[in-house]
Amino acid sequence: MLQKRIKVGLLGLGTVGSGVYRILTEGNTTLGEKAGVDLELKGILVRDPKRQRLVDVDASLLTTDPGTILGDEDIDIVVEVMGGEEPARSYIEEALRAGKQVVTANKEVMAKHGAELLQLARERGADLFFEASVAGGIPILRTLQESLAGEEVEAVYGIVNGTTNYILTAMDSKGLDFAEVLAEAQALGYAEADPTADIAGHDATRKLAILASLAFNIQVPLDQVHCAGIEEITAADIEAARELGYVIKLLAIARRDGERVEARVHPAFLPQGHPLAGVDGVYNAVLVEGRAVGTLMFYGAGAGQMPTGSAVVGDLIAAARNLRAGARGNNATGFAREGKIIPMEEVETRYYLRLRVAPEPGVLGTVTGCCGAEGVELASLDVKNWGKDSADLHIRTQRAKEKAFRRLLAALGREPQIYAVESAIPIEGEG
Amino acid sequence: MLQKRIKVGLLGLGTVGSGVYRILTEGNTTLGEKAGVDLELKGILVRDPKRQRLVDVDASLLTTDPGTILGDEDIDIVVEVMGGEEPARSYIEEALRAGKQVVTANKEVMAKHGAELLQLARERGADLFFEASVAGGIPILRTLQESLAGEEVEAVYGIVNGTTNYILTAMDSKGLDFAEVLAEAQALGYAEADPTADIAGHDATRKLAILASLAFNIQVPLDQVHCAGIEEITAADIEAARELGYVIKLLAIARRDGERVEARVHPAFLPQGHPLAGVDGVYNAVLVEGRAVGTLMFYGAGAGQMPTGSAVVGDLIAAARNLRAGARGNNATGFAREGKIIPMEEVETRYYLRLRVAPEPGVLGTVTGCCGAEGVELASLDVKNWGKDSADLHIRTQRAKEKAFRRLLAALGREPQIYAVESAIPIEGEG
Q: Could you say which of A207, A388, A401, A403 is catalytic?
């Protein structure tokens, strides 16, 4: 079938945009052949056309005026790789209103505005693809929307932030504390100058919201996703985890319980033999548990110019194929119903606790008494460093609701024999 | 948009067919909603309508006459889950000629006839989906066709046969020999009464041909895929692998080298830390190496009623969506060009060798002399069980072409001091 060349406008030419540019232009012999489409980059929106770039770009393509791209009827597909909420969201909306196909790598926009943008896409008969917004090069979103469309997904969870996984892996392998490794990660470019969005878990929260929106076909209000970061993880925590047979990972977890869904991001102890325990450095991995399919795992580079660029180009080809087939606007699934999120207090999990206590007879009785009173059963208790001034207790609990656990922490805080609760970290991946 | 119900005909109601039936009929609350299509099972082709089945099926749906389904203009989508080459291939062809959408789980048909059936589908404006033909529930084929359409794939390889992986895992964990574990696997239903297709590697060869056809957009002549099974792997091999830091897996490997592709199935030593080394039992895993995306891994159940049924239903939904969108016949990618397969003799790999030799001075010189003469360099040599009658040599080689290696084996066979070459197994996953 003869087909005009499909013209593409790129919004943004940072890390991801440069990756997209390289994949589209650097002698990929099979792209046109396998994709079955003929793509032409017609314009690139940048803030400063004179800036030094990661790639050599034909200067005549660059523009600082979004209207040059969004208002060009000749441009069929707009690729948004600027990042940040605004003006990216407005540009996506404008492109969809103009009936253009849109590809975005923007997790913030999709987590916050995915439902209405997909609705708009459906109304305008356009596609909105966003594979690169979660887990970089790992093709998990299209898998959830298409291959697993008939699957009753029970849970989707994993490691979806490369910065924190790099930090936790380095803390583990080098025995260093959080602050030291963060400084090193910043020097290497694995963490940003302001790393808050990553280390506080916000980035993972957005990605989890998108994953859950597709897995369960719901809208996930970001402010109802429980979020805890890795700032308070210490070398002592990681050492204690290893001694007990665990590793510490920042997990993003969404799990269906009847009509409701739990959605949470926090560091957790994972058994050393768990499939996610071996996911190190800047790699990501996502597990899907489905009623029929069982457990699937998807593993790959979670960020970076070329892997994320690859995901964008995959979407770009899908958008172009649909355009050519006259089949736009049929893939905008997910985000359908208002999600009912289970409040964190009602979520059940196990916990690791480390207490610094008075080295006195009866202190164990005090601790077990508090646990019993609040309905948190012990699974193990190890006494370490029994000295003149203090002793350490390492505790693993049975499953209990978060609210019982919070009451327990408050009760321990009222006991004079308990000097400090040094760590309280959920344990995942064990029945 | 209002849409007639899409009517489906099922060819076959064995293990996979029963899984498909269950997923379509057993109270999956999200199927219609997420899929966005309304599917009705209109007829099921079986050999014997009176046979006891894995599922309770409305007897009025059953037919023994393929024409009832293939000739029914009311049926939009035909799902072939009979297995075997004929009559499955003819039925698929007939359905495509009638312009029906087709979903198949049939690796034999797709490996042997994929190119012409996809060509026929294109000509008739129909879709032919076959996700379930490789690696059961793991959504690897659609990922290669869609998400990675823009990716220059360099290699695709993995563990794609559950029966052999179950046997190798059990040999490893129980220290048993091949024949004992095979008998056990047959009793448990993990191996068929005639297990040849699995243990001799033919099943994996078909799956590899399909993977390579999509990854590299080529046709792979099955008879050019090098194929060796696991029949000759012994408990001694597995023990030797463990001592040297490896596990033994049956690997299916396709790797691009310029315009040509190597394609081979054989048991191999894999380092214990390799991502595939931990894939145990009936699980499968496929790795994809792409120029931009780096290494991706996909892991899950490689067979079984429900996982494979899930893959079929995912395809069924895709076929129905395309039908509804009027966008049939646009996804039949892969299998385009005639593939140039590198002859096995020219493939480079490393080898593990175990020799039983005469316990005489000079025997090591004989062995190293043969290696040097044939251009195979040693990486390590361990002498074990030096006794009165014989000694064992465990050898790891550097990379060499297969043909040099075959010459070496012939040369060793001519040496009177070399009593036997007890094992010769390629080493993969190390530089």
A: A207
Yes or no: say if A170 and A330 are a contact pair by the CB < 8 Å rule.
no
* Domain B148-302: CATH superfamily, name plus number: Dihydrodipicolinate Reductase; domain 2 (3.30.360.10)
- Alpha carbon distance B125, B96 (integer Å): 9
Which one of the listed residues B34, B207, B384, B388 is annotated catalytic? B207
Q: What DSSP element (H or E) covers B246?
A: strand B246-257
In angstroms, the CA A130 to CA A107 distance is 8
Question: What pLDDT does residue B1 have?
Answer: 41
Decide: A135 and A161 in contact? Cβ < 8 Å.
no
The residue among A257, A170, A264, A167 whose CA lies nearest residue A209 is: A264
The pLDDT of residue B324: 84
Task: Residue B298: list chain A partners with CB under 8 A.
Answer: 296-299
Reduce the secondary structure of A276-326 to three states and give it as a string. Answer: CCCCCCCEEEEEEEECCCEEEEEEEECCCHHHHHHHHHHHHHHHHHHHHHC
Q: Are B141 and B343 in contact (CB under 8 A)?
A: no
With beta carbons under 8 A apart, name residues in chain A contacting B307.
292-294
Question: For this structure, is B207 an active site residue?
Answer: yes
Q: Nearest residue of B to residue A315 by CA position?
A: B147
Residue B2 has pLDDT above 60, yes or no: no
Tens digits of residue pLDDT in A144-167:
999 998 899 999 999 999 999 999
Q: Indicate the Cα dihedral angle A295, A296, A301, A304, nearest 10°.
A: -100
pLDDT at B32: 67
Measured between beta carbons, which residues in chain A are less than 8 angstroms from residue B318?
A: 146, 149
Q: CATH code for A145-301?
A: 3.30.360.10
Residues written for chain B: 431
Tell me the two tokens of residue B380. 């390590």
d(CA A227, CA A183): 23
Q: Look up the CATH superfamily of B6-136+305-336.
A: NAD(P)-binding Rossmann-like Domain (3.40.50.720)
A336 Cβ partners below 8 Å, 6+ apart? Answer: A217, A218, A219, B33
The structural domains of chain A, with segments of one domain joined by +, span 6-136+305-333, 145-301, 347-427
3-state secondary structure of A129: strand
- DSSP, collapsed to helix, strand or coil, labels residue B96 as helix
Tokens 């924190």 belong to which residue? A164
Superfamily assignment of A6-136+305-333 in CATH?
A: NAD(P)-binding Rossmann-like Domain (3.40.50.720)
What are the distances in angstroms from CA B294 to CA A159, B150, B349, B350? Answer: 18, 13, 22, 23
Q: Which of A144, A368, A136, A101 is nearest to B294 (CA)?
A: A136
Residue-by-residue DSSP string for A354-380 = EEEE---TTHHHHHHHHHHHHT--EEE
Measured CA to CA, the distance from residue A264 to residue A260 in angstroms comes to 13
Tens-binned pLDDT, residue by residue, of chain A (431 aa): 445 689 999 999 999 999 999 999 886 555 666 667 888 999 999 999 988 887 889 999 999 999 999 999 999 999 999 999 999 999 999 999 999 999 999 999 999 999 999 999 999 999 999 999 999 999 999 999 999 988 999 999 999 999 999 999 999 999 999 999 999 999 988 888 899 999 999 999 999 999 999 999 999 999 999 999 999 999 999 999 999 999 999 999 999 999 999 999 999 999 998 999 999 999 999 999 999 999 999 999 988 899 999 999 999 999 998 888 887 776 657 888 999 999 999 999 999 999 999 999 999 999 999 999 999 999 999 999 999 999 999 999 999 999 999 999 999 999 999 999 999 999 999 86
**CATH class in words for B346-427:** alpha beta
Pair type for strands B260-271 and B226-227: parallel
Fold of A347-427: Alpha-Beta Plaits (3.30.70)
Binary contact (A293, B301; C-beta < 8 A): yes
